[in-house]
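Deliverable D5.2: sample structural annotation.
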Amino acid sequence: MRKNAIKKILAEGGRVLNAWCSIPSSYSAEIMAHQGWDSVTIDLQHGAVDYQVAFTMLQAISTTNAVPMARIPWNDPAIIMKLLDAGAYGLICPMINSKAEAEAFVGAARYAPQGYRSFGPNRAVQYAGADYWQHANEEVLLFAMIETTKALENLDEILSVPGLDGVYIGPSDLSLSMGKTPTLDPTDPDVLAAMDTIRTRAQAKGLIAGAHTDSAKTALKRFNEGFQLCTILNDARLLAMAAQKPLFVKPKGKRKHRRRRLTEAFLSQIYI
């Protein structure tokens, strides 16, 4: 079976940069995957993506060395099994708030005797190899999203579930749950303390700690804190940011003027 490159990176002491796809397009997923990310996650929870499109996006990502992953819309055995059969090498499950929910997630994603996943890896064997079923339990990564105060209360029990590989923090939902302003770069000391608790306790159990961020600067901050996997925004937001750049020009010299729209600058050249 094809090895999971994320596990290799982390075993060598590296850090994982994860891309996030919310646009329902195999073409955009292919473009993202070709930019050098270690992994690419398809977002079926908040992204505009359904299973059939996700299938083609997994195919597109697989043309590169990026590890194909998906965030499932909910803790539902049906979509868990279908995405794994389609070749996802990692799953991120939102809103895991209890040990029972973590056990249900892991159970649906693991073949017996670790779980109850049904056998039918249609595309997975094309991507991973004919011996997929023999090694899938070891190679496929499972992340539980810890993003509520309830999950914090049950954290140790959640982390004790066999077969869980890591935790993934959604800072916005975690902040909301704690009565704070949702943000991907929290500065509130209570939220930061909660994130540190999640990370340290997970790593103490030998689990991977990941988090969503809003920029390379924030991702670097999270890496310096000890997080091993970070996502930077998503494809839609990155596209919007890139699309804005040609519209504006910086003023010449050292004058501290605001950036101006390109058309505005052009007109000023004509009429000044």
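Annotation notes: The radius of gyration is 20 Å. The chain has a mean pLDDT of 94.
The annotation will be released with the project's public dataset once the embargo ends.
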